[in-house]
Write a structure and sequence with these properties.
The protein is α+β, with helices and mostly antiparallel strands. The chain has 3 helices and 6 strands. A 6-stranded antiparallel beta sheet has the order 1-2-3-4-5-6. Helix 2 packs across helix 3.
Length: about 150
């Protein structure tokens, strides 16, 4: 399972759903201190253990002060837990933006990522399904897939 996790932000990303969302990109690969992000969300890698977890510190949008982390952990033989955690404080404006816009897009993106991981092991693949609100926001913010090669 950790082999999938090692592909994050590569041209063969088996975790991040770049087929339907802006790709996660880092100019010089996944290393502590590297700056990158996806779409309008920018961050710096502050902790990384290849194949197990990666932790980022937000730099954009303005007012998002904190971190987010992707983690994969073997619970038992044949049972794995994948998690995503955000720890942040927000300004008043960023809180409003989070509640009404970003949270909805974020949650749909993470569900698509988790489905993508699960689909790697399934014969009958899950198809992403988004709420009308998420589809409206995707259109309003012109969110499209990035099937081009990652940086």
């Amino acid at each position: 399972m950790s082999d999938l996790f090692k592909t994050i932000a590569t041209s063969n990303d088996l975790v991040w759903p770049y087929e339907n969302w802006p790709a996660m990109r880092f100019k010089d690969g996944l290393k502590i201190g590297r700056k990158g992000g996806h779409g309008r969300v920018r961050y710096t890698i502050i902790d990384f253990n290849k194949g197990d977890y990666i932790k980022f510190k937000f730099s954009k949008p303005d007012g998002f002060n904190g971190t987010h982390e992707l983690r994969i952990e073997e619970i038992t033989l044949g049972k794995t837990e994948i998690s995503h955690e955000i720890r942040m404080n927000t300004s008043f404006k960023a809180t409003f933006f989070w509640i009404f816009i970003i949270r909805w897009l974020h949650d749909a993106l993470i569900e698509d990522a988790f489905d993508k991981i699960e689909n790697y092991f399934l014969i009958e693949k899950k198809q992403p399904k988004h709420s009308n609100w998420v589809e409206f926001l995707r259109g309003a913010y012109k969110i499209k897939s990035f099937k081009t090669k990652h940086a």
